[in-house]
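Q: I have two molecules that I believe assemble together. Could you output structure tokens for the complex as a whole instead of separate predictions?
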Amino acid sequence: MSAPLSADLAQIGKSVVIKGELSGSEDLYVDGQVEGSISLKNNSLTVGPHGQVKASVEAKGLIVQGKLEGNILASDRVDLRKSAVVTGDISTQRIAIEEGAYLKGKIDIQGGKAEKAVGK
Amino acid sequence: MKLFRGSTGGGTEATPSQAAQKLVRRSSSLGELARVWQTETPLCVLDLGSTSASNIRFFTERSHKIYSEDLLVASTDPNLATKDEQGNRILDSRRFLADNLVYPAAHFDVVLCWNLPDYLDESLVRPVMGRLWSVLKPGGMMLAFFHTKDAGPDSPCYRFHIVGKDTLEMQPIVLRRETRRGPTGAVHTAVSEGFRLQRVFNNRHIETLFRDFASIKFFLARDNVREVLVVR
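A: Yes, here they are, computed for all two components at once.
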């Protein structure tokens, strides 16, 4: 399932490769490769099914459908879809993990309860 | 030790109905472990099975920290394949342990091994158990399940979900077919082979495997599974 795209969503397509620091104040959809760090403190990041992110991520919300390697700090929630492959520690308020998602790392739920998982 | 490694054939592919099939079983060893995580003190738990949302929820709701690391999937890394002095195919345990189970010594209060020893490649079993001993705190506990001799080589590998203090939901791990477009635009299809039972440990083998631990407790179940709880 692809994430819904909207006009307020910046997109990094499949063929795009970025190395460095990414920051912004709009939602971001990554279906290409990003290496470095991503900071979207008040916005959401979606790693699409072809996305390969090797970066520390700070965002309000995070949806992962592809590969992500790096520590995650999400102030609101993290969604790992069934095709997600995540290596890194996750710190968030709520997390949802679909059956089949792969996670290697620590899960730290900050100041709240773990949300009922999606598609268990 | 009864070895199944000679049996080939790529594994029986689970059908979607098998995939949907979830078995619920009581676990006495889990019930005993439940006393540990009823504590107010936050614990550090390492889950070595398939990533389970239920288990993550179970522990985080109780304010414990959980680490998830699927060692069976990690052991399928093709870069691990090498040969021993006799030319037999083995997996490079040093390389495996350089990339996996990398934690400070005495870090965890509880390790959930599930049925990992029965399905892990022979060359990795002892090195992995040695590393698990070192990352467990003194007094820390590890849970492992072993098939009895009545189990056949096609006994399915399960993912384990904790659904109650002494209740598990078991779900057969199905083969995953993955199709992706590569950088050149070509379509690649990867088919996971699934996991086959590698061997059956008897009680003496299990005691030898955990000889460095302070104590070992067996729980016999009706479904050809021996539950084992060891304390460092």
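A: One point stands out. The longest strand of chain B covers residues 136-147.
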